[in-house]
Amino acid sequence: MLSIVMAILFGIIIGSFLNVCIYRIPKGENIAYPGSHCTTCKHALSGLDLIPVLSFLYLRGKCRYCGQKVSIRYMVIEILTGLLYGAVYLKFGFSLEGLMYAVFAALLIVLTMIDIDHMLLPTRIILFGFIAGIIFRGIQAGGYQSLQFVLYPFLAAGIAYGLFYALFYGAQFLLKKEGLGFGDVRLVGMLALYLSMNLTFLTLFLASVLASFYGIILLVIRKKSEPFPFGPFLNVGAIIALFYGEYILSWYLGLL
């Protein structure tokens, strides 16, 4: 019980840092300097202002110095990260895999929120995800004395990247416009590095279904077709596949 609580608390702390990344990276700002400050009055925040979740609740969602409202999204991201870290611990424990998928979950949260805000999937975040994934897979291969921990993920990443690369340019050729952003192509390759080939295809299926439903709802509400980011749906699909993919695939194969 104590371990799961510690995992959740650690995730909440990481979530506070992810909020900084989500806000600063699209602006090209340094994520370490200057220190945390109010985005309205620019006043530096004290240690008491930076306690995740609790400081937001104590200050009733307002800046201590200027009284400006602070978006509840900051607290939601902290709690979401905590819950995801708790889920990662329950599935993988305190292990190399647990650490790898904790990093993976953090990357997905940052990429999802930036894509929602800016319709942008920063290359340097995805590149960091690739490098971290390669390192983790290499350590796995060495630790378990098996090249399959390198070969299979790399093969999955290559196939997924190649598939979406073809879709990207195929859509441009047929539709004479971008059907998806190239950031999505890179993202799919990164996702496959952390997931198996089966789970990657499940991720693509789930993302397509979720995005289709969202697009229909958007069309009904706004009476016109509008572009929207696909990255968040890929990331949600990846999270579902990570935690429930084996059960979903077993259920599906059982129907055949």
Give a verbal description of the structure.
The protein has about 260 residues and is mainly alpha-helical. Helices cover about 70% and strands about 0% of the residues.
Give helix and strand order, one letter per element, not per position.
Answer: HHHHHHHHH
Uncertain parts: none
Overall mean pLDDT score?
91
Helix fraction, binned, reads over 70%
Structural class: mainly alpha
Q: Please give the radius of gyration in angstroms.
A: 20 Å
Q: What's the number of domains? A: 2
In percent terms, what proportion of residues is strand?
under 5%
Helix run count: 9
In total, the number of strands is 0
**Straight-line distance between termini:** 40 Å
**What form results from the Cα inertia axes?**
globular
Sheet with the most strands, sense and barrel status: none
Question: Keyphrases for this structure?
Answer:
256 residues; mainly alpha
In short:
With 256 residues, the chain is an all-alpha fold.
Give the helices and strands, then pairings:
Elements: H1 2-24, H2 54-58, H3 73-92, H4 96-118, H5 123-144, H6 148-175, H7 182-194, H8 197-222, H9 231-255
Helix pairs in contact: 1-3, 1-4, 3-4, 4-5, 4-9, 5-6, 5-7, 6-7, 7-9, 8-9
